[in-house]
Amino acid sequence: MSKKTMRRPVNLCVLIVCTVLLWAVPAASAAAEDVEGQLELTYEHVVNVERQIEATLTVDWKDEGTLPVENVEIHFFIDAEAGEQQLGTAVTDEEGRAQVTMEANDPIGMNEEGLSTFTVRAEHPDLGSLKETIEVKDGTLDISFDEEEHAIHATFMQLTPDGTEPVAFASVQFYVLRYFGDIGFHGDFTMTGDDGVVIEEFPKGYPGDEEGNVEMRVQVDGHDSFGTISLVVDVPWGVVVEEGGYDRALWAGRDAAPWWLIIAANSLLAAGWGTIAYVLLLVVRIRRAEPEARADDKEADGTA
Amino acid sequence: MNEEIRQKIIDDGLRPLRQGMGWKGIVWVLFLLAIMAVAAFAYGQQVRQGLVVTGMNDIYSWGIYIALFVFLVAVSLVGAIFSSILKLTNFEFRRPLTRIAELIAVGAILFAAVAIIADMGRPERLWQVFASGRLQSPIIWDVLVVNTYLVIGLLLLYVPMIPDLAYCRDQLQDIPKWKKKLYRVLALNWQDTPRQKALLHRAEKFLIILVIPVAVAIHTVTSWLFAVTHRPGWDSTAFGAYFVSGAFVAGVACVIVAMFVLRKAYGYHRYLTDKHFDYSGKLLVLLSLVYLYFNISEFLVPAYKMSEKKGALLEMLFIGEYSLVFWGAIVVGIILPALVPIFKKGRTPGVLTVLAVAVVIAHWAKRFAVVMPPMGNTLSPVQIVPSDWHVYNPTWEEIAVTAGIMAGALLAITVMARIFPVLPIRDISQGRFEETDEKDEQGRQAFELMVEQHGRQDHE
Fold it and tell me: Chain-centre distance of CA A252, in angstroms?
């Protein structure tokens, strides 16, 4: 074999390697460019219960849009008087979400303008260092009952270092809590007035507990400055329902069936299934009839 | 001669079980399996993500799953017509059709139950129906009658087939072991003894009487799922009879299609004769006219009054968004089957089968037109819901699962028709030879002549 022919495979290999490199290097760098992590923060305050800061980590993937990033440690911080203070660490779930929860009475480090600052940080081998900050005002909701008008008065106030201030032109929603989903009973434009108050008539006839209490949630949803604020209270204006006496539920109120219905329906069923059982018995007897017949035949033949 | 003809009937009955499926059969089964595979993927999406992947919502809480359930329950009633009503009224032409009708009935009712499970979102919710159900609920009544009818349907298929299974056990030799074992177990040591015959006759008698009230009950109770509500379009005292009469039309149309396919696939021209199509066509006319009467009663009286809520619904059906489906179903599903088979040409196998296929599709559409439009009328003000909740558009997942359930029912029928004799061998023999009155003697002679002629044709 000559040198010239020996060199051909070597040349071919070099050509293939170069082609692969020419294709792979830009492709790899393009793939790296495509990955851009995004952290989003939301703040939710359930009055008298808890405050929750939730971070959502996603990436923009060219072909597939925005995708959640799972299993990433997110560190949550709050700006306190003594500097940045860690609130906790959480790992993102399959939807890219991680949360930390604070007690309702925990201090949230408000500055002179009444703003609290929350920061989250994360490290990811492909996405690098990520950081996001959110500034929120601290708000609260309070309600009172207007017995005469059968209405709820909800008051939305901002908590400031100097006390409280009413929040005007905020949309407030009212819900009655149910097992499978909450029923909203607010109008389309339920806004607070200058005094931070909104009045909503409470519908009559909602089934309540044994004392007639109905659970209601008043909520300011996703406010630009306050995030989401909600307050859950018992309203004593529901219909009193004894335990197990609420017939609308599929699993309740069997006792309410009239006896004649139970007897008639069960008799019909028993007759139907009784006939089925009898037919099955006949089928079994068909199976057993064969040896008997043979015995009869033998008897007839005199061989038994 | 009798024994020769009997053996000929047995051979004809068992012939498809000896032969392979053929390429057309394999393509058919693969086609059904492919649909079911897509449906399984779509159902997986539904189980993972919930009913949110369907087009159903707070307003349209029932969709095409329930329309399919009602359709399959309707089709399942056909077992009662051919195995029971026509048998009790001595219609001889029903003999070769009973097994086909029973296969359709069992396949349909099995997969009607599957449609309900699909509608529940997640399968484990089925347990809640039994654990938390209450007797006052029509849903529980429906669960009870569907289960009862399923058991009776299976028995009605199985019990008269025991002697035929004994033929399979004794005469099918070159078949797989599992099939031999299956036939041996299912044939129940049948030796055709007088005692066994008497017991079988008694069991059949009880079943064919029991199946009538249960079959009527199953579809009546299904109609009550709708009729016990206050919704316009469902709030009707005649809904039970309206549903049952429609079910008979759909069921007979299904038998005509199956009869045509099996006659072609298995070469059963001498058993499923043109006369059977002729009688089935006449039966279709009669049943369509009865159904037409109930439709007139159901729509004409409310249309005369056009009261507020019901008037809006009728407008939606007559000239609104559902008018195409509604009128299509009325014309193709009721008017045409009431008119076309009146003419002799309309009762020929080809024409009648094309018509029957159209009737089956139209009756599916009719169930859609019964279930969906009243869902949009909630009878109570709906607040704070997305605007797209006011319309119902089935998603691809829903359509795929629905198609998969239909494919499952067809596959079940196909598989049963490959394992069990579709001709009721003993029943056909009995019809020809065991009754020895003059009329049957004439029939026997005519049949012998026919077999001879066909034999000559086969030979040629």
Answer: 27
- Amino acid identity for residue A166 in this structure: P
CA atoms of B349 and B281, how far apart (whole Å): 9
| B159 touching A (Cβ < 8 Å) | yes
Asked if the C-beta of B137 comes within 8 angstroms of chain A's C-beta atoms, the answer is yes
Question: CB distance from B135 to chain A under 8 Å?
Answer: yes
Residue B153 lies in a domain: no
| DSSP secondary structure letter of residue B1 | -
Q: For residue B58, list chain A residues with Cβ-Cβ distance below 8 A.
A: 181
pLDDT higher for B437 or B93? B93
B-chain residue closest to A189, CA distance: B384
The boundaries of the domain holding residue B276 are 232-374
Q: Does A94 touch chain B (CB under 8 A)?
A: no
Long-range (24+ apart) CB contacts under 8 A made by B431-436 are: B431/B92, B431/B95, B432/B5, B432/B9, B433/B2, B433/B5, B433/B6
Which ranges of B50-161 would DSSP assign to H, the alpha helix? 64-76, 78-80, 86-88, 98-119, 126-132, 138-158
Label residue B333 by pLDDT band (50, 70, 90): very high
Q: What is the mean pLDDT of residues B415-428?
A: 91
DSSP per-residue letters across A245-260: --TTSTTS-GGGS-HH
Q: What is the pairing mode between strands A227-235 and A37-46?
A: parallel
Exposed/middle/buried for residue B160 (C-beta within 10 Å: 0-12, 13-18, 19+):
buried
pLDDT of B413 above 70:
yes
Chain A residues touching residue B203 (CB < 8 angstroms): 279, 282-283, 286
Q: How many domains does chain B have?
A: 1
ipTM of this complex > 0.85? no
Q: Is there a domain that residue B294 lies in?
A: yes
A292 Cβ under 8 Å from any chain B Cβ: yes
What residues of chain A lie within 8 A of the CB of B162, using their CB? 283, 286
Do A293 and B134 count as a contact with CB atoms less than 8 A apart?
no
Question: pLDDT tens digits, residue range B308-328?
Answer: 778 888 998 999 889 999 999
Average per-residue pLDDT for chain B: 87
> Nearest chain B Cα to A256, which residue?
B136
Q: Would you say residue B143 lies in a domain?
A: no
Chain A residues near residue B194 by CB distance under 8 angstroms = 293
Q: Is there a contact between A261 and B199 if contact means CB atoms under 8 Å apart?
A: no
